[in-house]
Amino acid sequence: MKAKEIQELIDYISNSGLAEVKIKTEEFELSIKKYAESAQVRVVESAPAPQPAAAPAPAPAPAPQPAASEAPAAASSNLVEIKSPMIGTFYLTPNPDSPAFVNVGDAIKAGQTVCIIEAMKLFNEIESEISGKIVKILVSNATPVEYDQPLFLVDPAG
User: Fold this and answer.
1) 85 SS3 class
2) In order along the chain (158 residues), what is the average pLDDT of each group of 10 residues?
3) pTM of the model
4) I need a labelling partner for 133 at 20 to 30 A (CA). Which of 33, 77, 86, 127 fits?
C-alpha cells in the first residue's frame, strides 16, 4: 500500500462511523483504531528477517509537536488552523531556489497550495480548505510534521 492510499483510508475511516479496521495481506498488515478525535495507524510489513534498527526512528518526532500546540492556545478564537493531512517533512517552497508558497500576511483562497509535505519520497501539495489571510506559520521549513499537526493559522475575515 502506498502512503497516499493509507492516508485516503484514514480519511475515509475518520469520516465514517467505523471505530476499527484491520487489513491483512501476504505483504502487509494494517490496523487502524479510532479513539475520540484521533486515529492511530500501525502498518506491519512482512519481511524475511526482523529489523530492530527501525524502532528508534519515532523518538525525535514528538519534539516539534509541543511548540506547535502551544501557539494555537495563545491565538485568538477566530483563527482557523490548516493542519497536516499526513506524517512527513514540511516544505514552504517547491524547491530551494523558489519563493515560498505563502508568507505571513498573504491572502489565500480555498484550493490554493500552501506547502508541500514529503512522505515516503512522494511530494504532496497541501491545499487550503479556507480563504483568508495567513497570520502565522507554525512549522519551520524542512522539519518533520505529524498527522493533524497545525501548520498555519488563518484569519478567515482577512
Assistant:
1) coil
2) 73 70 75 56 51 48 43 61 94 92 95 94 92 95 94 91
3) 0.52
4) 86
